[in-house]
Protein backbone atom coordinates (compact mmCIF):
# COMPACT_ATOMS: atom_id res chain seq x y z
CA UNK A 1 0.00 0.00 0.00
CA UNK A 2 2.54 2.53 -1.14
CA UNK A 3 1.43 6.13 -1.06
CA UNK A 4 1.24 8.01 -4.36
CA UNK A 5 4.39 9.85 -5.27
CA UNK A 6 4.46 13.43 -4.13
CA UNK A 7 5.61 14.60 -7.51
CA UNK A 8 2.48 13.11 -9.05
CA UNK A 9 0.26 15.28 -6.89
CA UNK A 10 2.17 18.42 -7.80
CA UNK A 11 1.35 17.93 -11.47
CA UNK A 12 -2.36 18.30 -10.82
CA UNK A 13 -3.88 21.74 -11.06
CA UNK A 14 -5.96 22.92 -8.11
CA UNK A 15 -8.26 24.94 -10.35
CA UNK A 16 -11.37 23.39 -11.83
CA UNK A 17 -14.99 24.16 -12.49
CA UNK A 18 -18.36 22.52 -12.09
CA UNK A 19 -19.84 20.67 -15.09
CA UNK A 20 -22.05 22.58 -17.45
CA UNK A 21 -25.82 22.19 -17.52
CA UNK A 22 -27.06 21.03 -20.90
CA UNK A 23 -29.22 23.40 -22.93
CA UNK A 24 -31.43 24.62 -20.09
CA UNK A 25 -31.15 28.01 -18.50
CA UNK A 26 -32.92 27.15 -15.27
CA UNK A 27 -32.59 30.70 -13.95
CA UNK A 28 -35.16 31.80 -16.51
CA UNK A 29 -37.58 29.13 -15.37
CA UNK A 30 -37.45 30.12 -11.73
CA UNK A 31 -38.59 33.34 -10.12
CA UNK A 32 -35.94 33.44 -7.41
CA UNK A 33 -32.31 34.49 -7.96
CA UNK A 34 -29.80 31.73 -8.58
CA UNK A 35 -26.04 31.56 -8.37
CA UNK A 36 -24.42 31.42 -11.80
CA UNK A 37 -21.52 29.00 -11.82
CA UNK A 38 -19.26 28.32 -14.77
CA UNK A 39 -19.51 24.68 -15.75
CA UNK A 40 -17.30 22.55 -17.96
CA UNK A 41 -17.50 18.89 -18.86
CA UNK A 42 -14.88 16.46 -17.65
CA UNK A 43 -13.47 13.41 -19.40
CA UNK A 44 -15.75 10.85 -17.84
CA UNK A 45 -18.92 12.89 -18.20
CA UNK A 46 -18.81 12.64 -21.98
CA UNK A 47 -21.78 11.00 -23.65
CA UNK A 48 -22.04 7.26 -23.85
CA UNK A 49 -21.89 7.49 -27.61
CA UNK A 50 -18.28 8.60 -27.19
CA UNK A 51 -17.65 5.48 -25.13
CA UNK A 52 -18.82 3.12 -27.86
CA UNK A 53 -16.65 0.10 -28.41
CA UNK A 54 -15.52 1.33 -31.78
CA UNK A 55 -13.92 4.39 -30.20
CA UNK A 56 -13.54 3.15 -26.65
CA UNK A 57 -9.85 2.31 -26.87
CA UNK A 58 -9.00 5.74 -28.18
CA UNK A 59 -10.95 7.49 -25.44
CA UNK A 60 -9.42 5.30 -22.77
CA UNK A 61 -5.95 6.43 -23.80
CA UNK A 62 -7.04 10.02 -23.42
CA UNK A 63 -8.67 9.40 -20.06
CA UNK A 64 -5.90 7.30 -18.58
CA UNK A 65 -2.54 8.46 -19.79
CA UNK A 66 0.32 8.07 -17.28
CA UNK A 67 1.17 11.38 -15.73
CA UNK A 68 -2.08 12.86 -17.00
CA UNK A 69 -4.90 14.24 -14.89
CA UNK A 70 -8.62 13.94 -14.56
CA UNK A 71 -10.98 16.43 -16.07
CA UNK A 72 -12.13 18.00 -12.83
CA UNK A 73 -8.71 18.03 -11.15
CA UNK A 74 -9.82 18.46 -7.56
CA UNK A 75 -6.68 17.91 -5.51
CA UNK A 76 -6.04 19.44 -2.14
CA UNK A 77 -7.58 22.86 -2.19
CA UNK A 78 -5.00 25.59 -2.38
CA UNK A 79 -7.57 28.01 -1.04
CA UNK A 80 -8.72 26.10 2.01
CA UNK A 81 -6.92 28.50 4.34
CA UNK A 82 -7.87 31.64 2.45
CA UNK A 83 -11.04 32.24 4.46
CA UNK A 84 -11.78 32.74 8.13
CA UNK A 85 -12.76 29.27 9.35
CA UNK A 86 -15.65 28.66 11.69
CA UNK A 87 -14.49 27.83 15.25
CA UNK A 88 -16.10 24.39 14.88
CA UNK A 89 -13.77 23.36 12.07
CA UNK A 90 -10.66 22.89 14.20
CA UNK A 91 -12.68 20.89 16.74
CA UNK A 92 -14.14 18.78 13.95
CA UNK A 93 -10.72 17.96 12.50
CA UNK A 94 -9.38 17.00 15.91
CA UNK A 95 -12.35 14.71 16.47
CA UNK A 96 -12.03 13.18 13.01
CA UNK A 97 -8.34 12.40 13.52
CA UNK A 98 -9.08 10.78 16.87
CA UNK A 99 -11.30 8.30 15.04
CA UNK A 100 -8.51 7.02 12.76
CA UNK A 101 -7.86 3.28 12.71
CA UNK A 102 -4.38 1.94 11.95
CA UNK A 103 -3.35 -1.43 10.57
CA UNK A 104 0.35 -2.24 10.84
CA UNK A 105 1.17 1.40 11.24
CA UNK A 106 -0.90 2.66 8.30
CA UNK A 107 -4.25 4.51 8.63
CA UNK A 108 -6.96 2.45 6.94
CA UNK A 109 -10.20 4.11 7.98
CA UNK A 110 -12.19 5.76 10.76
CA UNK A 111 -14.36 4.10 13.41
CA UNK A 112 -18.08 4.77 13.36
CA UNK A 113 -18.12 6.59 16.72
CA UNK A 114 -16.01 7.08 19.83
CA UNK A 115 -18.67 7.81 22.42
CA UNK A 116 -16.73 7.25 25.64
CA UNK A 117 -19.87 7.76 27.72
CA UNK A 118 -21.54 4.73 26.15
CA UNK A 119 -21.04 1.40 27.86
CA UNK A 120 -22.21 -0.64 24.89
CA UNK A 121 -19.72 -0.44 22.05
CA UNK A 122 -21.59 -2.88 19.77
CA UNK A 123 -20.08 -2.37 16.30
CA UNK A 124 -19.47 1.36 16.55
CA UNK A 125 -15.73 0.68 16.98
CA UNK A 126 -15.55 -0.74 13.46
CA UNK A 127 -14.74 0.86 10.11
CA UNK A 128 -17.90 0.88 8.00
CA UNK A 129 -17.58 1.23 4.24
CA UNK A 130 -20.52 3.63 3.86
CA UNK A 131 -19.61 5.58 7.01
CA UNK A 132 -16.06 6.15 5.82
CA UNK A 133 -17.11 7.86 2.56
CA UNK A 134 -17.55 11.38 4.04
CA UNK A 135 -14.35 10.92 6.06
CA UNK A 136 -12.52 9.92 2.86
CA UNK A 137 -13.86 12.96 1.01
CA UNK A 138 -12.76 15.24 3.86
CA UNK A 139 -9.22 13.84 3.74
CA UNK A 140 -9.11 14.10 -0.06
CA UNK A 141 -10.26 17.72 0.04
CA UNK A 142 -7.63 18.42 2.67
CA UNK A 143 -4.84 16.98 0.56
CA UNK A 144 -4.43 13.73 2.51
CA UNK A 145 -5.15 10.94 -0.01
CA UNK A 146 -2.98 8.19 1.49
CA UNK A 147 -5.58 7.02 4.00
CA UNK A 148 -8.17 6.77 1.21
CA UNK A 149 -5.83 4.70 -0.94
CA UNK A 150 -5.07 2.44 2.01
CA UNK A 151 -8.79 1.97 2.68
CA UNK A 152 -9.57 1.15 -0.94
CA UNK A 153 -6.82 -1.45 -1.11
CA UNK A 154 -7.63 -3.01 2.25
CA UNK A 155 -11.34 -3.42 1.51
CA UNK A 156 -10.40 -4.80 -1.90
CA UNK A 157 -8.39 -7.50 -0.14
CA UNK A 158 -11.36 -8.28 2.09
CA UNK A 159 -13.57 -8.69 -0.97
CA UNK A 160 -11.48 -11.73 -1.89
CA UNK A 161 -12.29 -13.53 1.37
CA UNK A 162 -14.70 -16.45 1.39
CA UNK A 163 -18.00 -15.18 2.78
CA UNK A 164 -20.43 -17.53 4.48
CA UNK A 165 -23.57 -17.04 6.54
CA UNK A 166 -24.48 -20.34 8.17
CA UNK A 167 -24.06 -22.79 5.29
CA UNK A 168 -24.65 -20.32 2.47
CA UNK A 169 -21.81 -18.75 0.51
CA UNK A 170 -22.16 -15.13 -0.58
CA UNK A 171 -21.24 -13.85 -4.03
CA UNK A 172 -17.56 -13.37 -4.72
CA UNK A 173 -17.96 -9.65 -5.40
CA UNK A 174 -19.68 -8.75 -2.12
CA UNK A 175 -17.92 -6.02 -0.15
CA UNK A 176 -17.94 -6.02 3.65
CA UNK A 177 -20.29 -3.84 5.66
CA UNK A 178 -17.45 -3.15 8.08
CA UNK A 179 -14.17 -4.41 9.47
CA UNK A 180 -12.36 -4.20 12.79
CA UNK A 181 -8.62 -4.11 13.48
CA UNK A 182 -7.53 -6.23 16.44
CA UNK A 183 -4.21 -5.26 18.04
CA UNK A 184 -2.18 -7.83 19.98
CA UNK A 185 0.33 -5.83 22.06
CA UNK A 186 2.15 -8.93 23.28
CA UNK A 187 2.76 -10.46 19.88
CA UNK A 188 2.82 -7.03 18.25
CA UNK A 189 0.51 -8.16 15.48
CA UNK A 190 -2.58 -6.69 13.85
CA UNK A 191 -5.41 -8.76 12.43
CA UNK A 192 -8.63 -7.78 10.67
CA UNK A 193 -12.09 -9.19 11.26
CA UNK A 194 -14.63 -8.34 8.55
CA UNK A 195 -18.43 -8.42 8.69
CA UNK A 196 -20.23 -9.23 5.43
CA UNK A 197 -23.64 -9.29 7.09
CA UNK A 198 -23.24 -12.42 9.19
CA UNK A 199 -23.12 -10.32 12.37
CA UNK A 200 -25.48 -7.56 11.26
CA UNK A 201 -28.97 -7.08 12.67
CA UNK A 202 -31.21 -9.25 10.52
CA UNK A 203 -28.18 -10.85 8.81
CA UNK A 204 -28.49 -8.71 5.68
CA UNK A 205 -25.54 -8.21 3.34
CA UNK A 206 -24.84 -4.55 2.46
CA UNK A 207 -25.79 -3.96 -1.16
CA UNK A 208 -24.49 -0.39 -1.05
CA UNK A 209 -20.91 -1.14 0.08
CA UNK A 210 -19.70 -2.15 -3.38
CA UNK A 211 -21.30 0.89 -4.97
CA UNK A 212 -19.72 3.26 -2.46
CA UNK A 213 -16.34 1.60 -3.06
CA UNK A 214 -16.54 2.27 -6.81
CA UNK A 215 -17.72 5.85 -6.25
CA UNK A 216 -14.89 6.46 -3.79
CA UNK A 217 -12.32 5.00 -6.19
CA UNK A 218 -13.41 7.54 -8.78
CA UNK A 219 -13.33 10.35 -6.21
CA UNK A 220 -9.75 9.38 -5.30
CA UNK A 221 -8.76 9.38 -8.97
CA UNK A 222 -10.41 12.74 -9.58
CA UNK A 223 -8.87 14.34 -6.52
CA UNK A 224 -5.29 13.16 -6.91
CA UNK A 225 -4.93 12.62 -10.63
CA UNK A 226 -3.48 9.20 -9.74
CA UNK A 227 -4.87 7.10 -12.56
CA UNK A 228 -2.68 4.10 -11.81
CA UNK A 229 -4.68 2.82 -8.84
CA UNK A 230 -7.90 2.29 -10.81
CA UNK A 231 -5.88 0.68 -13.61
CA UNK A 232 -4.30 -1.99 -11.42
CA UNK A 233 -5.42 -5.56 -12.15
CA UNK A 234 -6.77 -5.88 -8.60
CA UNK A 235 -9.00 -2.80 -8.85
CA UNK A 236 -10.18 -3.78 -12.32
CA UNK A 237 -11.07 -7.24 -11.03
CA UNK A 238 -12.77 -5.77 -7.95
CA UNK A 239 -15.01 -3.58 -10.11
CA UNK A 240 -15.86 -6.48 -12.41
CA UNK A 241 -16.79 -8.72 -9.47
CA UNK A 242 -19.13 -6.07 -8.06
CA UNK A 243 -20.68 -5.53 -11.48
CA UNK A 244 -21.11 -9.27 -11.99
CA UNK A 245 -23.36 -9.39 -8.93
CA UNK A 246 -25.46 -6.48 -10.16
CA UNK A 247 -25.69 -7.25 -13.86
CA UNK A 248 -26.45 -10.96 -13.61
CA UNK A 249 -29.54 -12.09 -15.48
CA UNK A 250 -32.51 -13.56 -13.64
CA UNK A 251 -36.28 -13.37 -13.54
CA UNK A 252 -36.40 -9.58 -13.21
CA UNK A 253 -38.57 -7.67 -15.67
CA UNK A 254 -37.18 -4.31 -14.50
CA UNK A 255 -33.64 -2.87 -14.75
CA UNK A 256 -33.72 -1.92 -11.07
CA UNK A 257 -32.08 -4.05 -8.37
CA UNK A 258 -34.27 -6.20 -6.15
CA UNK A 259 -33.14 -5.85 -2.52
CA UNK A 260 -34.00 -7.01 0.98
CA UNK A 261 -34.93 -4.69 3.84
CA UNK A 262 -31.95 -3.31 5.75
CA UNK A 263 -29.43 -3.54 2.90
CA UNK A 264 -28.27 0.08 2.93
CA UNK A 265 -27.94 3.08 5.27
CA UNK A 266 -31.38 2.16 6.56
CA UNK A 267 -30.10 -1.12 7.94
CA UNK A 268 -33.18 -2.17 9.91
CA UNK A 269 -36.63 -3.23 8.84
CA UNK A 270 -38.33 -0.13 7.45
CA UNK A 271 -40.35 -1.39 4.51
CA UNK A 272 -37.76 -0.55 1.86
CA UNK A 273 -37.59 -4.09 0.47
CA UNK A 274 -38.10 -4.30 -3.27
CA UNK A 275 -36.50 -1.53 -5.32
CA UNK A 276 -35.45 1.23 -2.88
CA UNK A 277 -34.47 4.58 -4.38
CA UNK A 278 -31.21 4.74 -2.40
CA UNK A 279 -29.89 1.53 -3.95
CA UNK A 280 -31.09 2.40 -7.46
CA UNK A 281 -29.43 5.83 -7.36
CA UNK A 282 -26.16 4.40 -6.03
CA UNK A 283 -26.34 1.60 -8.60
CA UNK A 284 -26.75 4.13 -11.40
CA UNK A 285 -23.84 6.24 -10.14
CA UNK A 286 -21.56 3.22 -9.67
CA UNK A 287 -22.31 2.06 -13.21
CA UNK A 288 -21.36 5.44 -14.64
CA UNK A 289 -18.19 5.60 -12.53
CA UNK A 290 -17.23 2.10 -13.64
CA UNK A 291 -17.81 3.02 -17.27
CA UNK A 292 -15.12 5.68 -16.96
CA UNK A 293 -12.59 3.50 -15.13
CA UNK A 294 -12.85 0.07 -16.74
CA UNK A 295 -10.13 -0.81 -19.22
CA UNK A 296 -11.34 -1.86 -22.63
CA UNK A 297 -9.48 -5.13 -22.70
CA UNK A 298 -11.18 -8.40 -23.60
CA UNK A 299 -13.00 -8.58 -20.25
CA UNK A 300 -13.67 -4.88 -19.94
CA UNK A 301 -15.36 -4.58 -23.34
CA UNK A 302 -18.04 -7.06 -22.35
CA UNK A 303 -18.79 -5.16 -19.15
CA UNK A 304 -18.89 -1.81 -20.95
CA UNK A 305 -21.52 -3.19 -23.33
CA UNK A 306 -23.61 -4.53 -20.45
CA UNK A 307 -23.27 -1.30 -18.47
CA UNK A 308 -24.36 0.85 -21.40
CA UNK A 309 -27.46 -1.26 -22.01
CA UNK A 310 -28.36 -1.24 -18.32
CA UNK A 311 -27.85 2.52 -17.98
CA UNK A 312 -30.22 3.26 -20.84
CA UNK A 313 -32.90 1.00 -19.40
CA UNK A 314 -32.37 2.12 -15.79
CA UNK A 315 -32.43 5.84 -16.55
CA UNK A 316 -35.66 5.50 -18.52
CA UNK A 317 -37.30 3.37 -15.83
CA UNK A 318 -36.36 5.64 -12.94
CA UNK A 319 -37.15 8.93 -14.66
CA UNK A 320 -40.47 7.63 -15.94
CA UNK A 321 -41.87 5.54 -13.09
CA UNK A 322 -40.17 6.70 -9.88
CA UNK A 323 -40.59 10.40 -10.54
CA UNK A 324 -43.58 12.20 -9.05
CA UNK A 325 -44.71 15.81 -9.09
CA UNK A 326 -48.03 17.61 -8.83
CA UNK A 327 -49.22 16.60 -12.30
CA UNK A 328 -48.07 13.00 -12.01
CA UNK A 329 -49.72 12.66 -8.59
CA UNK A 330 -52.95 13.88 -10.13
CA UNK A 331 -52.53 11.36 -12.96
CA UNK A 332 -52.01 8.48 -10.52
CA UNK A 333 -55.03 9.63 -8.52
CA UNK A 334 -57.10 9.20 -11.71
CA UNK A 335 -55.55 5.88 -12.76
CA UNK A 336 -57.70 3.06 -14.02
CA UNK A 337 -56.77 -0.36 -12.69
CA UNK A 338 -56.61 -3.92 -14.02
CA UNK A 339 -55.33 -2.79 -17.43
CA UNK A 340 -54.15 -5.70 -19.56
CA UNK A 341 -52.29 -4.64 -22.71
CA UNK A 342 -49.04 -3.19 -23.94
CA UNK A 343 -50.70 0.23 -24.04
CA UNK A 344 -51.58 0.25 -20.33
CA UNK A 345 -51.04 3.59 -18.64
CA UNK A 346 -51.04 2.20 -15.11
CA UNK A 347 -48.27 -0.29 -15.86
CA UNK A 348 -47.69 -1.31 -12.24
CA UNK A 349 -51.38 -1.51 -11.40
CA UNK A 350 -51.08 1.04 -8.61
CA UNK A 351 -54.42 1.31 -6.81
CA UNK A 352 -55.35 5.01 -6.41
CA UNK A 353 -56.93 4.32 -3.02
CA UNK A 354 -53.49 3.26 -1.77
CA UNK A 355 -52.17 6.81 -2.09
CA UNK A 356 -51.67 8.06 1.50
CA UNK A 357 -53.49 11.22 2.50
CA UNK A 358 -50.33 13.08 3.53
CA UNK A 359 -48.99 13.12 -0.05
CA UNK A 360 -51.71 15.44 -1.29
CA UNK A 361 -50.78 18.11 1.26
CA UNK A 362 -47.04 17.50 1.02
CA UNK A 363 -46.77 17.87 -2.77
CA UNK A 364 -46.32 21.52 -3.74
CA UNK A 365 -47.48 22.86 -7.08
CA UNK A 366 -43.86 23.50 -7.94
CA UNK A 367 -41.49 20.65 -7.06
CA UNK A 368 -41.07 16.91 -7.23
CA UNK A 369 -38.99 13.93 -6.12
CA UNK A 370 -38.20 10.28 -6.73
CA UNK A 371 -40.50 8.11 -4.63
CA UNK A 372 -39.06 5.52 -2.28
CA UNK A 373 -40.04 2.36 -4.13
CA UNK A 374 -42.01 1.12 -7.14
CA UNK A 375 -43.02 -2.49 -7.70
CA UNK A 376 -46.17 -4.33 -8.83
CA UNK A 377 -49.24 -2.81 -7.14
CA UNK A 378 -46.98 -0.96 -4.70
CA UNK A 379 -45.68 2.58 -4.70
CA UNK A 380 -43.92 3.88 -1.59
CA UNK A 381 -44.56 7.62 -1.69
CA UNK A 382 -42.13 8.42 1.12
CA UNK A 383 -39.37 10.91 0.39
CA UNK A 384 -35.82 9.65 1.03
CA UNK A 385 -32.98 12.15 1.27
CA UNK A 386 -29.98 10.06 0.24
CA UNK A 387 -31.58 8.60 -2.86
CA UNK A 388 -32.77 11.96 -4.15
CA UNK A 389 -29.46 13.72 -3.50
CA UNK A 390 -27.46 10.95 -5.17
CA UNK A 391 -29.90 11.08 -8.08
CA UNK A 392 -28.90 14.72 -8.56
CA UNK A 393 -25.15 14.09 -8.20
CA UNK A 394 -25.17 11.11 -10.57
CA UNK A 395 -27.44 12.91 -13.06
CA UNK A 396 -29.99 10.16 -12.76
CA UNK A 397 -32.26 13.17 -12.28
CA UNK A 398 -32.52 15.33 -15.39
CA UNK A 399 -31.64 19.02 -14.90
CA UNK A 400 -35.34 19.78 -14.68
CA UNK A 401 -35.96 17.07 -12.11
CA UNK A 402 -32.92 18.15 -10.08
CA UNK A 403 -34.29 21.69 -10.01
CA UNK A 404 -37.70 20.37 -8.94
CA UNK A 405 -36.13 18.45 -6.02
CA UNK A 406 -34.53 21.68 -4.87
CA UNK A 407 -37.88 23.44 -5.23
CA UNK A 408 -39.33 20.80 -2.92
CA UNK A 409 -36.63 21.49 -0.33
CA UNK A 410 -37.51 25.17 -0.36
CA UNK A 411 -41.26 24.62 -0.30
CA UNK A 412 -41.15 21.99 2.45
CA UNK A 413 -38.23 23.26 4.51
CA UNK A 414 -39.92 22.76 7.87
CA UNK A 415 -40.81 19.17 7.06
CA UNK A 416 -37.52 18.06 5.48
CA UNK A 417 -35.03 20.18 7.44
CA UNK A 418 -36.73 21.76 10.43
CA UNK A 419 -34.26 22.59 13.20
CA UNK A 420 -31.55 20.09 12.20
CA UNK A 421 -30.70 18.93 8.67
CA UNK A 422 -31.94 16.64 7.34
CA UNK A 423 -34.71 14.06 7.50
CA UNK A 424 -33.54 10.65 6.36
CA UNK A 425 -37.07 10.03 5.15
CA UNK A 426 -40.45 11.74 5.33
CA UNK A 427 -42.92 11.21 6.84
CA UNK A 428 -42.53 8.86 9.79
CA UNK A 429 -44.69 5.76 9.93
CA UNK A 430 -46.62 5.27 13.16
CA UNK A 431 -49.36 3.40 15.00
CA UNK A 432 -50.60 0.24 13.30
CA UNK A 433 -48.50 0.82 10.18
CA UNK A 434 -45.37 1.09 12.34
CA UNK A 435 -46.18 -2.22 14.00
CA UNK A 436 -46.67 -3.99 10.67
CA UNK A 437 -43.80 -2.41 8.71
CA UNK A 438 -41.05 -2.38 11.38
CA UNK A 439 -42.19 -5.33 13.45
CA UNK A 440 -42.60 -3.02 16.48
CA UNK A 441 -38.93 -1.95 16.28
CA UNK A 442 -38.23 0.00 19.52
CA UNK A 443 -35.41 1.96 17.86
CA UNK A 444 -37.39 3.07 14.81
CA UNK A 445 -40.30 4.68 16.61
CA UNK A 446 -41.95 7.65 14.92
CA UNK A 447 -39.66 10.59 14.13
CA UNK A 448 -36.63 8.70 15.43
CA UNK A 449 -33.57 7.03 13.90
CA UNK A 450 -34.43 5.70 10.41
CA UNK A 451 -38.13 6.47 10.87
CA UNK A 452 -38.09 10.19 10.14
CA UNK A 453 -35.01 11.02 12.23
CA UNK A 454 -32.70 13.90 11.27
CA UNK A 455 -29.17 12.89 10.28
CA UNK A 456 -26.39 15.52 10.19
CA UNK A 457 -24.24 13.30 7.94
CA UNK A 458 -26.65 13.96 5.07
CA UNK A 459 -25.56 17.60 5.14
CA UNK A 460 -22.70 16.89 2.73
CA UNK A 461 -25.01 15.29 0.18
CA UNK A 462 -27.48 18.16 0.43
CA UNK A 463 -24.66 20.70 0.02
CA UNK A 464 -23.25 18.92 -3.03
CA UNK A 465 -26.70 18.74 -4.62
CA UNK A 466 -27.30 22.43 -3.89
CA UNK A 467 -24.02 23.46 -5.50
CA UNK A 468 -24.64 21.33 -8.57
CA UNK A 469 -28.08 22.88 -9.07
CA UNK A 470 -26.80 26.41 -8.45
CA UNK A 471 -28.53 26.90 -5.08
CA UNK A 472 -25.77 27.29 -2.49
CA UNK A 473 -28.01 29.51 -0.38
CA UNK A 474 -30.03 26.42 0.59
CA UNK A 475 -26.89 24.63 1.76
CA UNK A 476 -25.64 27.69 3.61
CA UNK A 477 -28.88 27.96 5.55
CA UNK A 478 -28.75 24.24 6.45
CA UNK A 479 -25.11 24.45 7.57
CA UNK A 480 -25.88 27.42 9.81
CA UNK A 481 -28.60 25.38 11.48
CA UNK A 482 -26.18 22.53 12.09
CA UNK A 483 -23.50 24.85 13.44
CA UNK A 484 -25.87 26.17 16.07
CA UNK A 485 -25.99 22.81 17.84
CA UNK A 486 -23.72 20.04 16.53
CA UNK A 487 -20.59 20.85 18.53
CA UNK A 488 -22.27 21.67 21.82
CA UNK A 489 -24.42 18.55 21.50
CA UNK A 490 -21.32 16.39 21.02
CA UNK A 491 -21.75 15.51 17.31
CA UNK A 492 -24.76 13.14 17.72
CA UNK A 493 -25.51 10.40 15.24
CA UNK A 494 -29.08 11.60 14.71
CA UNK A 495 -31.81 13.82 16.15
CA UNK A 496 -35.40 12.95 17.03
CA UNK A 497 -38.71 14.75 16.74
CA UNK A 498 -40.82 16.07 13.92
CA UNK A 499 -38.57 19.12 13.63
CA UNK A 500 -35.32 17.39 14.61
CA UNK A 501 -35.15 19.29 17.92
CA UNK A 502 -34.00 16.56 20.29
CA UNK A 503 -30.81 14.50 20.39
CA UNK A 504 -31.73 10.94 19.39
CA UNK A 505 -32.78 8.72 22.26
CA UNK A 506 -30.14 6.12 21.35
CA UNK A 507 -27.84 8.39 19.33
CA UNK A 508 -24.10 7.94 19.84
CA UNK A 509 -22.06 11.04 20.51
CA UNK A 510 -18.97 11.90 18.48
CA UNK A 511 -20.36 10.03 15.50
CA UNK A 512 -17.59 10.17 12.91
CA UNK A 513 -19.71 10.66 9.84
CA UNK A 514 -21.63 13.50 11.50
CA UNK A 515 -18.27 15.20 11.97
CA UNK A 516 -16.98 14.39 8.49
CA UNK A 517 -20.28 15.29 6.83
CA UNK A 518 -20.07 18.78 8.33
CA UNK A 519 -16.45 19.23 7.22
CA UNK A 520 -17.18 18.11 3.66
CA UNK A 521 -20.20 20.42 3.46
CA UNK A 522 -18.10 23.38 4.62
CA UNK A 523 -15.26 22.63 2.20
CA UNK A 524 -17.66 22.19 -0.70
CA UNK A 525 -19.29 25.52 0.03
CA UNK A 526 -15.96 27.32 0.37
CA UNK A 527 -14.44 25.69 -2.72
CA UNK A 528 -17.13 24.37 -5.11
CA UNK A 529 -14.46 22.91 -7.40
CA UNK A 530 -14.36 19.93 -5.03
CA UNK A 531 -17.75 18.94 -6.44
CA UNK A 532 -15.96 17.26 -9.34
CA UNK A 533 -15.00 14.36 -7.08
CA UNK A 534 -18.59 13.30 -6.50
CA UNK A 535 -20.60 14.69 -9.38
CA UNK A 536 -21.31 13.33 -12.85
CA UNK A 537 -22.65 15.49 -15.64
CA UNK A 538 -25.91 14.72 -17.40
CA UNK A 539 -25.57 12.45 -20.42
CA UNK A 540 -27.96 13.27 -23.24
CA UNK A 541 -27.79 9.71 -24.54
CA UNK A 542 -29.56 8.54 -21.38
CA UNK A 543 -32.50 10.92 -21.62
CA UNK A 544 -35.86 9.22 -22.19
CA UNK A 545 -38.79 10.96 -23.81
CA UNK A 546 -41.29 11.40 -20.99
CA UNK A 547 -44.66 12.31 -22.40
CA UNK A 548 -46.37 13.97 -19.47
CA UNK A 549 -46.49 17.30 -17.73
CA UNK A 550 -43.96 18.04 -15.02
CA UNK A 551 -43.93 20.41 -12.06
CA UNK A 552 -41.46 22.89 -13.52
CA UNK A 553 -43.91 23.75 -16.31
CA UNK A 554 -46.66 24.62 -13.85
TrEMBL record:
Coiled coil: none annotated. The keyword Lyase does not apply. It holds the Pfam family Glyco_hydro_100. Its EC number is 3.2.1.26. It catalyses: Hydrolysis of terminal non-reducing beta-D-fructofuranoside residues in beta-D-fructofuranosides. The keyword Transit peptide does not apply. GO terms for molecular function: endo-alpha-N-acetylgalactosaminidase activity; sucrose alpha-glucosidase activity. InterPro entries: 6-hairpin_glycosidase_sf, 6hp_glycosidase-like_sf, Glyco_hydro_100. One of its GO terms (biological process) is sucrose catabolic process. Keywords: Carbohydrate metabolism, Glycosidase, Hydrolase. Invertase that cleaves sucrose into glucose and fructose. PANTHER family: ALKALINE_NEUTRAL INVERTASE D-RELATED (PTHR31916:SF15), PTHR31916. Belongs to the glycosyl hydrolase 100 family. This is Alkaline/neutral invertase. The lineage of its organism: Eukaryota, Viridiplantae, Streptophyta, Embryophyta, Tracheophyta.
